Amino acid sequence: MIEVTRLNGKGLTINSDLIEMIEETPDTVITLTTGKKIIVKESRQMVKNLVKLYRQECNSTDFVE
C-alpha cells in the first residue's frame, strides 16, 4: 500500500498492485485496474518511487517483530 495526497490535501492509501497506469495531464492521474481514476498531488515519478519502495519493503528479509 502506498500513501498519496488528493488535490484537496487529504491523504489516501492505495493498493499498489491495482495500479494500471499513471499519467500527468498535467495533474497526476492514477488509473486502477477497477477503472477508477484518482487525481493526486504527487508526480508520476514520485508515485513510481513509492511503489518501488513499498515492493522493496515487502521483499525485505529484515522484518522486525
TrEMBL record:
Record's keyword terms, sorted: Cell projection, Cilium, Flagellum, Oxidoreductase
GO molecular function, one term: oxidoreductase activity
InterPro entries given in the database record: SwrD-like (IPR009384)
Domain of life: Bacteria
Name used for this protein in its record: Flagellar FlbD family protein
